[in-house]
Amino acid sequence: MSSSPSSEQRSSAEAAPASGLTIDGVEAAAIAAALGTPCYAYSAAAIRAAYQRVDRAFGDLPHAVHYALKANSTLAIARLLRSFGAKADANSMGEVEVALRAGFTPDDIVFTGVGKSPEELERGVALGLLTINVESPGELDRLDRIARARGTVARVALRVNPDIDAQSHPHISTGLKSNKFGVPIEMAPALFREIARRQGLRANGVHVHIGSQITSLDALLRAAQAAVSLAVALRAEGIPIQHVDFGGGLGISYDDNAVPDPTDYVRRLVKLMAPTGLEAIVEPGRTLVGPAGYLLSRVVDVKHFEGGRRFVVLDAGMTELMRPALYGAFHKIEPVQPRGGVPSLVDIVGPICESTDSFARDRLLAPVDTGDLIVIRDVGAYGAAMASTYLRRPLAPEALVDAGGWQVIRRRQTLDDLLSLEA
Ligand code: LLP
To answer: What's the CA-to-centroid distance between 209 and ligand 1, angstroms?
Structure first.
């Protein structure tokens, strides 16, 4: 049997794609046919539901959900979250500027980053961001100097490091003393007193973020408790803390294993916060957009040699989705239009010249052939946002499915786009 459809079959397939995976009623194959592969597609409804679940779980507690743009800062996704009432968490000046272009105001934006450049600090102070999460005594000094020179007062929070093991992948755990993030929590009271003495600074919050893809509610709650206790003690001293920012970090289920329920987590935060009269801030990224994203890719080759492994080679690789190569992350992978037949164990790999360019090893996959469309699931967070143009591979396009239709929210980069920066 020929491994790719005749051109006649292909065009009829494009005109009326056979059924298969749908995203909120839209056929994934239709998006792939229009955009080419690899491409990303997101469900607006899934993002809306995830946002509302978190927001509503706070009930009457004063709170704000600052979407962690790093998970996916495509403008249309940022605008979408803003339209639901989200605020923004930026981790670079690029993300701050994207937030502003998406319609967020400086008052909506918290700015975190372990190594903010002088330019980033200047711009953050000039904008008057809601809060700049400060990561070190040195950064406090620099901010104070910048604010005084501008004759203004910068609102800051201190990012505390509670020395708590998030029990996540070590590459994305940030809450241990051995990690580069924040200041040891036991140093915080002295630093807050120092802030109170600085003319250019006003402390409005305590910030903690111990990692990402965390599935231990216990670790998250211990960090939260430590931050709340600190905030309460500071208030008792007369330091006018207004909020506790619990960061992001809650994990999602990539593989159907049980993970903590976001509603449950937020309710536990509410319990901690209700007696304090303080405002709660959370910075979720993955839980809001992760499950809403699909990476559509075509099989470009299938190969198997006597006594060797069975490889399914896709047109997507670590350039589009870095998570498996970087963290050994698991993502579900399936044919978009299954052919039927007995699944077999295969290695699902990308086309890039590195052996780490692999999405799955010994994965049970239904039969596929060259030209078949494949979906990689749960890629809405840290997928497109971490893409690269290695091998001069242009960035993949992105589509947003909403209200029964879909639109392109980022076109495919062209080689001319790529080369336009070069002499
Ligand atoms: N707030 C701060 C200060 C952060 O550093 C992060 C993520 C978040 C919020 C959002 O965390 P989330 O709710 O998404 O877990 N590239 C990795 C994840 C890195 C997360 C870095 N910080 C991955 O693909 O798993």
So the answer is: 9
Place of tokens 């040891």: 184
Q: Which residue has the tokens 């206790």?
A: 229
Which residues are bridge partners to 348 per DSSP? 312, 360
Sort 239 into a burial class: Cβ within 10 Å, 0-12 / 13-18 / 19+. Answer: middle
Ligand 1 in contact with 213 (CB < 6 A)? yes
Q: How far is the CA of 162 from the centre of ligand 1 (A)?
A: 17
Q: What are the tens digits of pLDDT across the range 268-316?
A: 999 999 999 999 999 999 999 999 999 999 999 999 999 999 999 999 9
Instruction: Read off the pLDDT of residues 134-145 as tens digits, 9 standing for 90 and up.
Output: 999 999 999 999
Q: What residue owns the CA closest to ligand 1's atom 20?
A: 212
Please provide residue 410's backbone torsions phi and psi, each rounded to the nearest 5 degrees: -150, 125
Q: Is 353 a catalytic residue?
A: yes
Cβ atoms 241, 233 nearer than 8 A: no
Among 226, 420, 388, 234, residue whose Cα is nearest residue 318: 388
Beta-sheet strands, E only, within 318-404 = 333-335, 344-349, 358-365, 373-377, 398-402
Say which of 15, 236, 342, 353 is annotated catalytic: 353
With CA atoms as reference, report the closest residue to 106 among 115, 93, 116, 119.
Answer: 93
Q: Report how far ligand 1's centroid is from the alpha carbon of 152 (Å).
A: 31
Measured distance CA(301)–CA(397) in Å, rounded: 22
